[in-house]
Amino acid sequence: MSKIRVGVNGYGVIGKRVADAVALQPDMELVGIADVVTDWRIQSAAGRFPLFASTDEAREAMGRAGLSVAGGLEDLLGQVDVIADTTPKHVAAVNLPRYREAGVKVILQGGEAHETTGHSFVAQANFDSALGRDMTRVVSCNTTSIVRVLGALQDAGLLAKARGVLIRRATDPWESHLGGIMNTMVPEPKIPSHQGPDAQTVLPGLDLVTIAAKGAHTQTHNHYWTLQLTRAASREEVLAALRAAPRIAFIRMADGLVALNSTIELMKDLGRPRGDMWEVAVWEDLVTVQGDEAFLTYQVYNEAIVVPETIDAIRALTETAPNAAASMKITDSTLGMRKDFLTENVPALPGDHP
Amino acid sequence: MSKIRVGVNGYGVIGKRVADAVALQPDMELVGIADVVTDWRIQSAAGRFPLFASTDEAREAMGRAGLSVAGGLEDLLGQVDVIADTTPKHVAAVNLPRYREAGVKVILQGGEAHETTGHSFVAQANFDSALGRDMTRVVSCNTTSIVRVLGALQDAGLLAKARGVLIRRATDPWESHLGGIMNTMVPEPKIPSHQGPDAQTVLPGLDLVTIAAKGAHTQTHNHYWTLQLTRAASREEVLAALRAAPRIAFIRMADGLVALNSTIELMKDLGRPRGDMWEVAVWEDLVTVQGDEAFLTYQVYNEAIVVPETIDAIRALTETAPNAAASMKITDSTLGMRKDFLTENVPALPGDHP
Amino acid sequence: MSKIRVGVNGYGVIGKRVADAVALQPDMELVGIADVVTDWRIQSAAGRFPLFASTDEAREAMGRAGLSVAGGLEDLLGQVDVIADTTPKHVAAVNLPRYREAGVKVILQGGEAHETTGHSFVAQANFDSALGRDMTRVVSCNTTSIVRVLGALQDAGLLAKARGVLIRRATDPWESHLGGIMNTMVPEPKIPSHQGPDAQTVLPGLDLVTIAAKGAHTQTHNHYWTLQLTRAASREEVLAALRAAPRIAFIRMADGLVALNSTIELMKDLGRPRGDMWEVAVWEDLVTVQGDEAFLTYQVYNEAIVVPETIDAIRALTETAPNAAASMKITDSTLGMRKDFLTENVPALPGDHP
Amino acid sequence: MSKIRVGVNGYGVIGKRVADAVALQPDMELVGIADVVTDWRIQSAAGRFPLFASTDEAREAMGRAGLSVAGGLEDLLGQVDVIADTTPKHVAAVNLPRYREAGVKVILQGGEAHETTGHSFVAQANFDSALGRDMTRVVSCNTTSIVRVLGALQDAGLLAKARGVLIRRATDPWESHLGGIMNTMVPEPKIPSHQGPDAQTVLPGLDLVTIAAKGAHTQTHNHYWTLQLTRAASREEVLAALRAAPRIAFIRMADGLVALNSTIELMKDLGRPRGDMWEVAVWEDLVTVQGDEAFLTYQVYNEAIVVPETIDAIRALTETAPNAAASMKITDSTLGMRKDFLTENVPALPGDHP
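Output (structure tokens, whole complex):
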């Protein structure tokens, strides 16, 4: 069977991770990446992937910078089945007509509006409804985590209502010398924040209100939830529902994982590329149930969490996997995704010799 | 009428502010301050207030450091009606027998347990029950803010249940070169956090759960609340209840006060000593009501908020004010406390000449 | 004698401090302040100073915002002898023709080029050459500190060559929710940095090279110097030269002032408005001399250090003080400037009653 | 030829990297790691390397924690030729007698005093003098970088005198929830700082003074140097000397690598384990020469830079490489060390398939 030919437009925080992940999939071929920058961000990729220029200006600039350019965006589009657009917010909507004209399937990211594609995607929630579509939108990192965790409790028939406080990282590390916040917090200027309605594009029935703010750190979001359950439940029931759902992994204060930075270091210790964590890390020993209410806290590695969803969306649009389980099995296995970071056997690192 | 003679033991973040506030009260006399340190923290106060040594060792060290010492703690206790203990957490409990033996009234701070004094104090909530007592405990900055805000809604008959997320500052600015957190958040290792039960020592009936974490900033706590109301209410009703309560001041995103640091700068612009904010600053335009639920966010200047409460507690124990309103009127007027930082006439600053 | 009538255009970090300082001078009258913003930054000042609009658009916007406006910039210029322009970088150069047309004396700040005024000012270095001029430029916070400290050693005949590393604060606290840096350092993209040549506009003969970078903190710059002396000297000679110069104050690690935040807290403890430090704080016990080399470190409160210089520049341009010493005596006394923050008698705070 | 059997005692920031690096060497065998902790830090390694307990108490605790323990430290020592002690500061000195008794070669880290081993090690500077010794000390991250860079210029006959300002990261990321600094800088309480004399243990003749401070960031040190050359030289001569020396790599502002975080992100983009940078990254376009003076700035990845030195020290003590060049060739090749991060062909990442 021939491989799905994939292009990535926008080689930034998400795009470079999607490119790496596509390259790992046995059923996909990364045809190339496209971007507009010419500096270190793209130079470090130039030897690894065929490089295309997203615009004519970029193509000229790349030439001047001595980068070897395989062509323009249209050249890339002419060679792929699917384009993953991982450009900055609101750029993808402008790119869309070019993609449609080229007749390729399209995956956008959470910075775009649901209406742009008419479909919003989280693998475990609605893979089926994306099968064969021309395009979909992988929802944002915050929303993906919400759908995974609250969706798990909803699937278990436990969740009636969710009220969350989302403390977001202020900026990504690579650009933390620009536009960061210092020694402060910045509440979103509106309550409810947009993540609630955004999650409802995937989980339409969910009674959900979110309040958001930026915290003075650069890595990972941190969500705090008050959950009204459908009935009085035991803590073990809630834990079981979370344990059963994919792409949620438990961490524990009792293991010394007591702060965002502990988990970030652990990912490096596990030998993960870029120290990525694709799972939502739920603090197991902070899951608290009182009568018909539950409280929990989790950590979202915002730079990486949507990467496996993007991979699965590629299979859904191209109908190369029959259902979520089939696609996620391949994705999760190639990435090395886990349900617990410490209790399972730790896989050998790339550098290990058996 | 003779003035209430007050001593302050522990000239730290809270103690130095209490000392300044006592010195401003027309009905109080600051007899002196006591501490154990000998460095800049106490040197800068040495010319302003009579200085006592809290321990024999401290007395010797102060002498060696060239500080002029008026006596030991017992000397201070012999000259006062009330001692405000603002020593670090758990030190006050050890000091208590010395205070009791000296026969002085005692005010402890929120680092001590409720049981140590048997009474916990927030002026607007339970001044009366402290009248004539031998001792009380002014609750912590977080708890004080909770009692003020939730108490206001409870008094208005609007509050059924409160679920809050408290993002605390990591450390105070003066000690931020020691023991701070960097580029991370640190969730409390237990849900619910202790602030809920602590608020219940003042508002016994309140259905209240809090989740807490430390954020990577040094100034002011930031609380996010989901409130179950007793009935569907209008936003204006909720605002009116908050507006009617003392020591809550509104701020607005619409005025450009969009982050913790904006408010902190405003306090300096208002000419406040040390840039203090004794009020809870509630974002008026973030107060949101949906049916029988309300959502709100406020900012707590943790270094200063308990100072007016401590002043009122002094009057309650000594029965020198008949009720909360009478005491708070003096306290709030001497400090220059406000209900809105921008719409009222701004008072002349100390340096202004008419 | 009639007072010098002063206007301040640009009520930001520097402007609001200059306004306060002008209001404190016995020989000056603050006629008003002008700005273009309408939010909390100007609302908090509106009750204190007559407010003018710097532009026509601003005047309309201020009216819509309910601010009481005394007139436009030209109205302000018509009533003053001197305008202090404390607008953001490069705005003053554009304003200059309006000032010249109005026939007022002009003081610009360090964001403008030396050539714009043809004269750069630091009171203790070159007050005389500014006497009676139409305009001058008060150099930047970094440069002012360099001129004070290195100028002191040059005046004492001790300084041959200076090589400095300047770690700047990344952004001011009030705007630290915008454009800050997080968990990084940002070296200036050029060595030498511009502060060396800038200091040479005031101290023309000085052999001086600076390297600069931004650090991940919001308050105060921190300079580290390697000084080639003209001859082998004793540590006491170097200290004596610094002690003799104005507007330099010693701090000591031995007093517990061990980090930037310690000194910042001390300023608040001393009751200073906004916690300002107008002096350069040199760590006395870090001044090290080895043969004919000296090493030292100091702290520059960038928000405040140029305020006294601006006050003195007003007197120089208007020839209302015969020399630097006469002007600085008034300025320093009204501000409460000191040579040592701990060993002198601490003056009574505004709130103290004798 | 049989492999060098190596043990690592202390599986922390340095130890875990040394373990990984040893495992990559074709001529070494990692027999095991030893530590005293039982939490996530060691759990994540437990499946990868044989685990030994450094103390009897630790052995019991590890058993209770369900960790599979291969033995005590003495058991490990009985199976190795060399022990790399990467325990926290001052612990190694206590461990030394146990190592000596076991008759194994010993490598300590820079937290220990030079006198403890009588030899301090930087591969390119003094590999030969370590050949066959019983023990050596790999100097600290700061000192290693100084020896590499200044040693390169000294070897080229260009360096007469060096004066440096070292801005250190405040704490390592994994422990940044404990003991960090916030919104401040902390100057070392002594000038000169200890790094100068420490570098002289490897480069005895060097005229060197350092001033140090902690900055408010968690990753990488940043050094700023003023260098007195032996003669007027061209910028190209200085660059050539740096280019010729091993383990120094150029980065450029012109490539967009403008801040510490840019370089840190680049290491992740290059697929390096944990995002490590073993080279000293010198900003090529900031190297400035004026007559007989040079100025430069570089970045030191403090968590990783001493790892290759430790590997080379193992070969020196065991005399399994005849000289520095032979050992460094193997080390640098296995780690993938580079002279320039962008202009060379980027090697394929572990996940790439040809």
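The interface with chain D takes residues 163, 165, 167, 181-187, 189-192, 209, 211, 213, 215-219, 222, 224, 226, 253, 258-261, 283, 285-286, 288, 290, 293, 295-297 of chain C (CB under 8 Å).
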